[in-house]
Amino acid sequence: MAVSVLRLGHRFARDARISTHVALTARAFGAEKIAYDAKATDVKESVEDVVKQWGGSFTVEFTDTPMKYLKSFTGLKVHLTMYGLSLNEVIGKITKRGGDLLVVVGGKKVPSEVYELVDYNVSVGTQPHSEVAALAVFLDRYFRGGEVDIEYKKAKLKVVPQAKGKKVLSE
Ligand code: SAM
Questions:
Q1: R_g of the chain, CA atoms, integer Å
Q2: Looking at ligand 1, which residue's alpha carbon is closest to its atom 10?
Q3: Distance between CA atoms of 104 and 112, rounded to whole angstroms?
Q4: For site-directed labelling of 104, which of 60, 67, 117, 154 has its Cα 20 to 30 A away?
Q5: CA dist 137 to 107, 122, 140, 157, Å?
Q6: How far is it, in rounded angstroms, from Cα 5 to Cα 25?
Q7: Domain spans of the chain?
Q8: Could you tell me if the CB of 99 is within 6 A of ligand 1?
Q9: Strand 76-86's sheet: what is its strand order?
C-alpha cells in the first residue's frame, strides 16, 4: 500500500514555496511520492535536500500529461476540493478500500475532467483554504494519526522531542 500525491496547477512565477510545502507535507504525513504537472526543478531539489537530511525515500516526479497520469493510476483516486463530499462522511469508505491511493490537490483552477476521473471528490470543510492544509488533514485522518510517529530511515538529522528548547541528533 502506497500513498502518492498529484499536485495540479503549479505556476512557476508564484508557486515554488507552496508547491514545496505540498511535497513536504505529503512526505511528513505518510505519502511516498509526489508528481507535479510542471517541471519545477527548484522544488524537486529543495525537497530532495530535505530527504537527504531527514531520511526516508520520498520521491518527486513530473508529468507533462497529468490527465493520462490520473487515468492510468491503478488504485483509489481522491481529489480534495471544497465542493466534494464531506471528509467525515467518506473517510471510512476510503480507508476500508486499502491498496494504493492517489490524492489530487489543485492550485489554480482544476480541470473539470478531474472531478469525473476520480473515485471520490472530498471536502475538508466547505470553506476555501489551502492545498497544504487540505492534504495534511486528509492524510492525518487517512492514517488515523499514526503517520506523525514514522521513523525515517537513513536520517542524518533527528529531532529528540523536548518540553522546552531544541535537541537535534546528527550522525
Ligand atoms: N476552489 C478551490 C477548490 O476546489 O477547493 C479552492 C482553491 S485552493 C487555492 C487550491 C486547492 O486547495 C484546491 O484545488 C484543493 O485541492 C484545496 N482545497 C482548498 N480548500 C479546500 C477544502 N475546503 N477542502 C478540500 N480541499 C481544499
A1: 16
A2: 107
A3: 13
A4: 154
A5: 17, 11, 5, 26
A6: 10
A7: 3-170
A8: no
A9: 59-62, 33-36, 3-7, 101-105, 76-86, 120-123
Single-letter amino acid, residue 81: T
Joined grid coordinates for residue 79: 481529489
pTM score: 0.96
Q: What angle do CA 167, 168, 171 make, to 5 degrees?
A: 145
Cell digits for 4?
Answer: 502518492
Q: Which of 137, 123, 143 is nearest to 78 (CA)?
A: 123
| Helix pair 41-54, 16-28: axis angle to 10 deg | 30
Q: What is the pLDDT along the chain (171 residues), one digit of tens a residue?
A: 899 999 998 777 778 899 999 999 999 999 999 999 999 999 999 999 999 999 999 999 999 999 999 999 999 999 999 999 999 999 999 999 989 999 999 998 999 999 999 999 999 999 999 999 999 999 999 999 999 999 999 999 999 999 999 999 998
> Is domain 3-170 annotated with CATH 3.40.1280.10?
yes
To test ligand 1's pocket by mutation, which of 79, 110, 131 has the most ligand atoms within 8 angstroms of CB? 131
